[in-house]
Amino acid sequence: MERHALSLTGLTRRFGENTAVDAVTLTIDPGQFVGVIGRSGAGKSTLLRLINRLIDPSAGEIVFGDRTVNDLRGKALRDWRRHCAMIFQQFNLVDRLDVLTNVLVGRLAHHGFATSMAMQFSDEERTMAIEALDRLDMAPKALQRAGTLSGGQQQRVAIARALVQNPRIMLADEPIASLDPGNATKVMDALRRINREDGLTVLTNLHTLDTARSYCDRVIAMRDGRVMFDGPASGLTDRVVRDIYGSAGLEEFSESVTSTSIQPQAETISA
Ligand SMILES: Nc1ncnc2c1ncn2[C@@H]1O[C@H](COP(=O)(O)OP(=O)(O)OP(=O)(O)O)[C@@H](O)[C@H]1O
């Protein structure tokens, strides 16, 4: 796998008068597990969407290895999006399709028009999809309709779908915001395992401080589009958080959602 640093320089995105991401400059080394935190509207989602070019920057540069991502067009841009797998708060699975087919959807970007329209996949791709599901303890559900799974199970299927893209970077936009604590822990544990086993860079927006502290090597705190803190999770003391967010912000981010000590809970829907 290509292992390159991702560098953002002066990255800016304006929506009319509003500057959602304001001159962000940072470098993410390969294999880092990075959490982006900040209050609602701080620019976290916009930052992720800029990186995978779902939206275009108003100014600044995104560089991955020797590739200037903000200049990419056409096939090169499609390849980049394939290299940056993204998972979302709402999972975005096709409810009526089975789990295995949902994972195989992650392979479509590797296909030409005809085979992708026909949803034709090779045996090798099916094996790859089953292996990805197995890593997330979801292989037994491969033939079940995605819509019948719990939220935590759906998110793990979404991670498997992202993995079969063979990504260089995994972007996760509030991946646990809709999940109960037990499922949130399983999803974060899965991301951490992939990060450690594959050396895959993970960049995830989180809305709880304790999750960032438990899982991230590095935390980036944003406010009004700017980076207010960038450092190891251990540097995020209550004092730093209060300085960045004010005391109201501290309460907002201190609530507990995941904890490495939480025992896995029963899934809300079982097969
Ligand atoms: N497509 C858009 N059009 C106009 N304004 C937008 C658009 N997307 C984001 N914004 C604005 O940019 C700012 C940053 O939004 P963003 O969604 O990146 O914040 P966030 O930190 O991810 O918030 P949340 O935690 O609520 O998702 C907000 O003021 C938002 O209203």
Automatic annotation (TrEMBL):
Q: Which SMART domains match?
A: AAA
**Matches recorded under CDD domains:** ABC_PhnC_transporter
Single GO cellular component term? membrane
Provide the protein name. Answer: Phosphonate ABC transporter ATP-binding protein
Give the taxonomic lineage as stored in the record.
Bacteria, Pseudomonadati, Pseudomonadota, Alphaproteobacteria, Rhodobacterales
Q: Which UniProt keywords apply?
A: ATP-binding, Cell membrane, Membrane, Nucleotide-binding, Translocase, Transport
Record-annotated ABC transporter domain positions: 6-249
Report the InterPro entries cross-referenced here. Answer: AAA+_ATPase, ABC_transporter-like_ATP-bd, ABC_transporter-like_CS, ABC_transpr_PhnC, MetN_ABC_transporter-like, P-loop_NTPase
MF term (GO), any: ABC-type phosphonate transporter activity
Gene name, Swiss-Prot/TrEMBL: phnC
